[in-house]
């Protein structure tokens, strides 16, 4: 079936003008306007659209609209969404009266929040100061500097379109766990939760009360996240006791059953000593020292040292059936599986994986419900206290100098503790 002919009211010149350029004059200047959408010849008046007006008339119309009307117009089609950008709104609405309102507009999705409770202003590295002491480590040698002023490339809260809503800031990677952002119209500095990655708005006093009751760094967590983190820490220590017990029983059983086998005794003794070194490193590394590559290498060494005893145990079972040998084999396999999981967990920690990723919005279901929780589980299995690390977030500390800085601070704290203990003991004796 052939399409109907175009209406007779449209001649050929009008048809050409509708699909080409339309000149218009203003101050002796030729301005051409190209239609964004192809014309419809069957429409009663194909020029009855805002898109067919000259651009200077369009800008004149847009300049008389408020921010709400511009947002509605921006939501109509792709052309207005691309045209009405941040710079366009600054041109149309840039005035002292409107700048105060545009401070509470997200510069990414242009969501308007008149109260500003869901808007965040990310701070620079130099602005990440402790709210109690007002000090921060900003130099590579670990010295402190009282300076909270962000560099010029960070827009201040007083400028329009300087804020991001929480969702857009999370998607853009601007919310780093443990760092500070400004909220409440830029008047309050709050922490980013180390568990879920969202701002800890209104929970600072509660966190300090919980910290006084024994929960470390609770003021950097939401109340619910702090309780979950506390349960994870308790479960981690229970698992450490179980894993250490399995390793100890395994080595004792190997030493008693295969006391005359050097291929079993020597690797097992070396593995046992390396486990002691690993526990010592975990105990002294604190929040600033990166030792995951060292611990991961030692865990891999323990895993490799368990292969020769396993080979001897399997060969022995093939020759004769013994309940003690079978128990040693089962425990040794469990011990090696635990070491393998520890190697994977330390590798993930070495890559500085952000465990808050599975709390981000608009995450694919496979990553949200499987991959990210699986990787987070490896982190919590290996060292859940990694959430308290000082270097979490972009640009916190340089990797090459964190070990030296951390060990320097560790020895300073150790000397201070020894001096305080000596003074207290001397006063007690006197």
TrEMBL record:
Residue span, F-box domain: 47-91
Residues passing through the membrane, by range: 227-254, 263-286, 292-314, 326-350, 370-392
CDD domains with a match to the protein in the record: F-box_SF
Region (Disordered): 1-29
Swiss-Prot/TrEMBL keywords: Membrane, Transmembrane, Transmembrane helix
Protein's recorded name: F-box domain-containing protein
Organism: Plectosphaerella cucumerina
InterPro entries (alphabetical): F-box-like_dom_sf, F-box_dom
UniProt lineage: Eukaryota, Fungi, Dikarya, Ascomycota, Pezizomycotina
């Amino acid at each position: 079936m052939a399409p109907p002919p175009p209406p007779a009211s449209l001649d050929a010149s009008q048809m050409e003008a509708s699909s080409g350029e339309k000149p218009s004059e203003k101050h002796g200047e030729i301005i051409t306007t190209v239609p964004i959408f192809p014309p419809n010849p069957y429409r009663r008046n194909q020029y009855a659209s805002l898109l067919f007006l000259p651009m200077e008339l369009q800008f004149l119309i847009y300049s008389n609209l408020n921010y709400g009307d511009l947002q509605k117009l921006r939501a109509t089609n792709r052309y207005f969404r691309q045209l009405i950008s941040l710079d366009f709104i600054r041109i149309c609405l840039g005035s002292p009266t409107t700048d105060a309102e545009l401070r509470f507009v997200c510069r990414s999705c242009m969501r308007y929040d008149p109260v500003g409770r869901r808007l965040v202003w990310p701070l620079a590295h130099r602005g990440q100061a402790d709210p109690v002491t007002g000090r921060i480590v900003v130099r590579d040698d670990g010295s402190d500097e009282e300076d909270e002023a962000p560099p010029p490339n960070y827009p201040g809260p007083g400028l329009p379109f300087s804020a991001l809503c929480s969702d857009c800031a999370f998607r853009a990677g601007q919310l780093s766990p443990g760092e500070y952002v400004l909220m409440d119209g830029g008047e309050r500095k709050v922490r980013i939760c180390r568990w879920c990655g969202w701002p800890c708005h209104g929970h600072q006093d509660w966190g300090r009360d919980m910290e006084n009751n024994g929960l470390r760094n609770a003021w950097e967590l939401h109340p619910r996240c702090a309780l979950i983190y506390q349960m994870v820490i308790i479960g981690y220590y229970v698992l450490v006791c179980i894993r250490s017990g399995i390793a100890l029983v395994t080595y004792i059983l190997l030493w008693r059953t295969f006391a005359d086998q050097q291929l079993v005794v020597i690797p097992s003794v070396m593995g046992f000593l390396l486990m002691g070194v690993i526990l010592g490193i975990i105990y002294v590394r604190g929040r600033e020292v990166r030792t995951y590559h060292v611990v991961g290498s030692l865990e891999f060494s323990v895993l490799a040292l368990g292969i020769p005893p396993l080979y001897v145990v399997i060969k022995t079972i093939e020759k004769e059936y013994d309940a003690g040998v079978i128990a040693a084999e089962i425990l040794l396999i469990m011990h090696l599986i635990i070491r393998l999981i520890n190697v994977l967990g330390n590798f993930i920690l070495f890559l500085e994986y952000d465990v808050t990723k599975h709390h981000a919005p608009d995450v694919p279901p496979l990553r949200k419900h499987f991959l990210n929780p699986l990787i987070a589980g490896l982190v919590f299995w290996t060292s859940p206290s990694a959430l308290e690390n000082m270097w979490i977030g972009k640009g916190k500390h340089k990797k090459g100098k964190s070990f030296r800085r951390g060990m320097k601070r560790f020895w300073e704290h150790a000397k201070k503790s020894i001096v305080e203990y000596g003074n207290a003991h001397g006063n007690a004796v006197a």
